[in-house]
Amino acid sequence: MGGSDGGGVLQARVRMVALPESVPVARRFVDDALTQWGRETLIEDVGLCVSELSTNATLHSGSRFFELELEQSPETVRLTVLDTGSATADSMTAQSDLTDALLDDQTADDASTTGRGIFIVSALASSWGIDELPEGKRVWAEFDDDGDTTYDARPPAVTRREASPQPAELDPDAWVTVHFLDCPAALLLAHDDNLAEIIRELQLVGSDLDRPHFHRLAGLLAGHVQRHAVNWDPARIMAMDAIRDGHERADIHVLSPRHVTEEIAFLRSLVGEAEALAEAGKLMTMPARAEIQQLRDWLEAEFLNQVERGQPPVPYGVWLEQH
């Protein structure tokens, strides 16, 4: 869920497709992180604000994706939502200037399509701001759990930046949305868990038996998983939410870099090497079940077909019938 910078600061980050389905995923991400960090008293306020900011980034920014980050220090929790859309800091600042009388005339359902959501952020956060970027904007809000329940709207701190090179990972054209339709939720989680079990055992066996090869393989696998976690974590959250809601299947949307073929081939070779060790009896973790192998084949095919070849998504059930 996050890492530490060594100074008591914890961070969690995720990158999501700018679709309405991502808003509850963003809320779940925040809830889980704050629970893990023991900051449950902030869940309601931070969760409400992330819902509003994610909705704004999804519906009103024109961005293809948005990036969400939580950072915890002993004093505060900082929420950041970054998008690459065209909405300006001035437009958001104007939205935060709504009066209480206007709020009284609106229902809660109106919040996502008006400035009320931004007004809520300005009232709940102890401080907040908007950083204009060369492409898009970064909205941040800080919260403390000192027991203060006086909610007063505050103007944002606005930072305007001169044009500068955009980081490659924030280039909208560098990403493609991949849709995994009719995805079996429990099987997707089993797929991820199997990979995590393999990595853990490779690390343990490599340490206990002094096998450098196992260490190397574990490091490569763990590095690959960590490198792509910011894009893949929403898939896990969507799958878990589907199971919580009693659904066996879910439509899952994730971001992929445009050039993914080499990454997929690399992961496949690493997993194949690890499973060969398992089949040879050198690991206690069993090779993935046949249905997990099928899911992997489908996931790989969808990445390649949608990202590299521009083909439409094929639902899992349809793909099974074809194979």
TrEMBL record:
Gene Ontology terms for molecular function: ATP binding
Name this protein carries in UniProt: ATP-binding protein
Domain Histidine kinase/HSP90-like ATPase: 18-141
Keywords from the named record: ATP-binding, Kinase, Nucleotide-binding, Serine/threonine-protein kinase, Transferase
InterPro entries hit by this protein: Anti-sigma-factor_SerPK, HATPase_C_sf, HATPase_dom
Origin superkingdom: Bacteria
